[in-house]
Structures are given as C-alpha cells and as structure tokens.
C-alpha cells in the first residue's frame, strides 16, 4: 500500500499540526485525502495547496455532521481505505479544578471523537480489502502526567479502544493501531508553552526547555515523524502490525 494511488484516506484534525503533515504525506504518495476539522479556512488552504486533498469541515463530536461529511467524501473519492483519527485538544488544569464539563468535553473530542471517526469510516470500508484505522493518541495514553488527568484518561481510552478493535477485526483485512507521540512541535504545543508562561511566570525559553527535556533525546517530535509512521502503517510491510500503541517519544517511559 506504500504506493497509494487508488486509496482514499480520511484524516481528522487535518487543518494544522500533525493532521496537516499526515494529509500532505498521504497525498504526496498518490492517495486522495478527505481533510476534516471544524474550521473551514485551514482545510481549504490545504486543499488549494494539493489537488488530491478535499476540505470537508465537520466536528468529530457531532456524529450526524461527521457522517454527512464522510458521505460527501465517498461520493467524490469512493469508499475509504485509510482512516486517521487525529483530531484532539488538550487543556490542562489541576484535578480539583477539572470540573465535570471540562472532563466530559475532553473525553468527547479525544475519545468519543476517535470512536465516531473509526465507526463512521469503518462502516463504509470494503472490509475484505486491506484497510487501516489509525488513531493519533499520545504518550499520555501510555503513562500519567500531572495537570492533564482528563486528557490522560481520554488517551488511555483511545489505546484501549484500538487494542480491542484490533482483536475484533483481526480476521478482516483491516488493521487498527495507535501512534503515541511525545511533545510535538505543533500549535497545540505552542499553546501549552504559552499556558506555562502565563500560569507560572517562567520565561518562554524555560517553559520550552521543561517540555523538551521530558523527551530523553532532548528534542520535540516533528509532525513529519508522525506522518511517516502513518505512511509505514499503511504499507504492506505493516500488514501484521495491529493492536499496537507505537511510542514516538525518544524513549520516554
Ligand atoms: N502536540 C503535541 O505535543 C502532541 C503530543 C501527543 C499527541 N498529540 C495529539 O496529536 C493530535 C494532533 O494534535 P496537534 O498537536 O497537531 O495539535 P493541533 O495543531 O491543535 O491540531 C488539532 C486539530 O484537531 C482539530 N480539532 C479539534 N477539535 C476538533 C473537533 N471537535 N472536530 C474536528 N476537528 C477538531 C483542530 O482543528 P479545528 O479547531 O479547526 O477543529 C486542529 O486542526 C491530537 O490528537 C493530539 O492530542 C499532540
């Protein structure tokens, strides 16, 4: 599947960061890509930059909206063969200031959003052909971090969903995996750094270094590293890789 001509990939959260890199990498290999996110403008800019990419604004927490966007995408590009549930958001708060609304909305985007995307996409796949369901989880799906209990709970949930679904679909042609990046240089990271500066009074350099040094390699993961892992998971070489949570973190434990 590395030569992706004839494939149709659905990528959520494609308007920025990792999702944008994933959409561009898949399109560069010949796949048709449906780019989903809430804001139309960044999706349209992406579609203008590459004519294999189609912008389909939708909120992954709204199942009706998502189903309608995927139905329109199928009319244009045929049944999906690759579904990448990448949309997510991270808000930090100490546990006692994490009210139930923040907890629910965090689970809604990061966990129910993956459920919605996988179910909506998988139901339209030709399940006898090779297919790929890939979630962009996080190292927060594999270990705990302070001040992001809701986000960690959601991302651990994503890893559980992937492991379960991989077992259920093992006899189909469809594999199911999670990619678990550490801190990655995207708008989400920049917002986290701004937040640390605002809440702790530390300088930007200090805030940045504190996150960079969580990675034993002392660097941030790049969006292209996530995108190339998606491309590898889509290759024939990865046909027996399923139910895995692949850590891209410079060895973080
Ligand atoms: N950056 C990191 O350090 C890091 C580390 C590990 C894992 N991750 C994960 O990587 C994924 C991509 O994040 P990123 O770092 O690339 O951050 P990002 O640039 O903020 O991208 C997140 C994307 O998700 C979209 N999105 C958010 N809520 C949505 C919703 N309800 N429906 C549809 N789209 C939605 C956003 O677009 P709209 O606002 O237009 O909807 C945005 O394009 C996320 O799942 C994140 O949790 C990030």
Task: Characterise this structure.
The protein is an alpha/beta fold and 253 residues long. It has two domains: 8-182 and 223-246, NAD(P)-binding Rossmann-like Domain (Rossmann fold); 183-220, no CATH class. The chain is built from eight helices and seven strands, in the order βαβαβαβαβαβαααβ. It has helices at residues 17-28, 40-49, 63-77, 100-122, 149-168, 187-200, 204-212, 223-234, and strands spanning 8-12, 32-37, 53-57, 82-85, 131-136, 174-181, 245-248. Helix 2 (40-49) links the parallel strand 2 (32-37) and strand 3. Helix 4 (100-122) runs parallel beside helix 5 and helix 6 packs across helix 7 (204-212). The model has no long low-confidence stretch (mean pLDDT 97). Bound molecules: NADP nicotinamide-adenine-dinucleotide phosphate. The site of NADP nicotinamide-adenine-dinucleotide phosphate (NAP) has 29 residues, from helix 1, helix 4 and helix 6. NADP nicotinamide-adenine-dinucleotide phosphate binds at residues 12-13, 15-19, 37-39, 59-61, 86-90, 109, 113, 136, 138, 181, 183-184, 186-189.
Looking at how many chains there are and whether they match, the oligomeric state comes to single chain
Overall morphology: globular
CATH evolutionary superfamily of the largest domain: NAD(P)-binding Rossmann-like Domain
CATH topology of the largest domain: Rossmann fold
Top CATH class of the largest domain: Alpha Beta
Largest sheet: 7 strands, parallel
Number of helices: 8
- The total domain count is 2
Low-confidence residue ranges: none
Structural class: alpha/beta
Keywords:
15% strand, 8 helices, seven-stranded parallel beta sheet, 2 domains, alpha/beta, Rossmann fold, 253 residues
